[in-house]
Amino acid sequence: MIERNNILSYLDDQAPFLISIATDIWEHPQPGFKETYAATLIGDTLHNAGFRLTTAVAGIATALVAEWGSGAPVIGILGEYDALPGLSQKVIAQKEPIEPGAPGHACGHNLLGVAGMGAALALRRFMEDHGIEGTVRYFGCPAEESLMGKVFMARENVFAGLDAALTWHPMCVNTLWAASSAALNSFKLSFHGRSAHAGSSPDAGRSALDAVMLTDVGVNYLREHITSDARIHCVVTYGGEAPNIVPAYAQSFYYVRAPKRSQVEQIYERVLNVARGAALMTDTTLEVELVTACHEFLPNDVIQRLLLNNMKEVGPPSFDDDDVAFAQQLQATLPDGMVEDALRCYGRSSEEMGGPLCRTVLDAVGTLSRGEVQPVSTDVGDVSQIVPTAQLTACCMPLGVPLHSWQAVASCGSPIGFKAMLFVSKALALTVFDLLQNPDLVQSARQEFLTATGEKEYECPIPPELKPPTS
Predict the structure, then answer these.
(1) Which domain holds residue 275?
(2) Other Cβ atoms closer than 10 A to 339
C-alpha cells in the first residue's frame, strides 16, 4: 500500500505541472494530423524524463511512441490531442470564441493526452526507484476525431508486442466505458457528368447532382432493410455552381456505422450498389474514395474490473462550490430537456450522480454498460482488436453538456476538466502498476481476448494504398 500511495503522492505533487501542460494544449488547439504543438510538448516532456522517444511513427508527423523500461509485460497507454474545427471558446458560460472560426478542444483531448502522460511519468519514477521489470509505452495518437490516427498506426504494426492497453475519454460521468462502439466506413462518392445550359440544351447535359440526389433517395429506401442499430449519415460536399448549369461534378460524403465490422462491410457494398445504380440512371460515372474505416471497440473485462477498482480507490474528482456554480451556469445554456435526457441515457437520478457534476464512481451506467453498443465510433476499436484494451470515462463537464459543443470546450479548459484529468492519471497509473506486478492478471486478460476474438488475427480495414493526409 505504501508503494501505491507513493504513486498517488507523486501525481499530487505533479498536479500544477500537468495542469500547465493541459492548459497550454487547450490554448493551442490544432485539428487532426496538424497537432504539432501538443505532440512536440508531450514528446519533449517524456523524452526529457528519460523515455526513449520515436516520432513520426507510421509516416504521421504528429504520431509518437515514448517507452520506458524493458522486458515483459509491455503495457500501453493511449493518448490523443487533436481539437475540433470551428469550436474556439473562452472559459465562460456564454458562447464567445477566443478566435472566430478557430478550433477548440470540444472533446477534451487536451486532457486525454496529458492524463496518460502523467501516469507514464509516475510509473517511470516508481519503476526506477524500485527496480521493477516491465515496459511502459505511451502512444501519442493523432486524428482520433476523423477516426484515422490509430488505424494507420495499427496497419503499420505500431501496437504490436503489447500485453495490454489503457485509455480514457472525457464525458459527464466517472465510470467504465464497458460498452462496445460502432464499426465504421467513411467514404466519398464523386459523380462525373457533362455540363450544359440547363434552359436551352438540358438534353446535352448529364447531371452529376441528379446522381447524388438519387443515391440519397436509394439509401433512404435501403435503411428499411438493414439492421436497426446501423446508421448511415450523409452530407453533400459539392452540388454545382448555378441552377442554369447542369452540374458536371457533384459529391456526397457518407458514414456507415454498425455494431460489427462485418455488418459495416455488407452495408457499405449495398450503398455502393445504390450509387452505381444512380450512375446508370443518370449516365454519369462514379468514383469511390474510402476516407477511413475502423473496427468496433472490444472491452476487456479483466482489465476493466481492475480499472474500476482503482478508480474507486482513488476516489472521484473533488469539485468545489466554484466548480458546481460554473457547471450550473453551463447547464443553463442548454436546450430544455438535455439534462433529463442525459439522466435517462445513464440510467441514474441526479442525486445518484451527485448533482450537476458527477461526484461518485459508478459501476455501470446505461449505454456505457457491458453488452451495450455505443452509436459512436472510435479508432480505439482497432487497438482493442490487437491487444486486450480497457478504457474509462471521467466527469470533465456538467451533466447534459454534449461533446463537440462550445460548453464542452469551456469546461475542459476549466478546473472541472483538470480535476478529472488528475483523477484519471492516478487510476491509470495504479492499473498499470497492478499489471506490471501481477503476471496472472495479464495472462487472464490475454485469455479473455483470445476467446473473444476467436484467436483471429487483426485485419486492418483500410487498404495499403491509402495514405495519411499530409495537409
Answers:
(1) 183-294
(2) 19
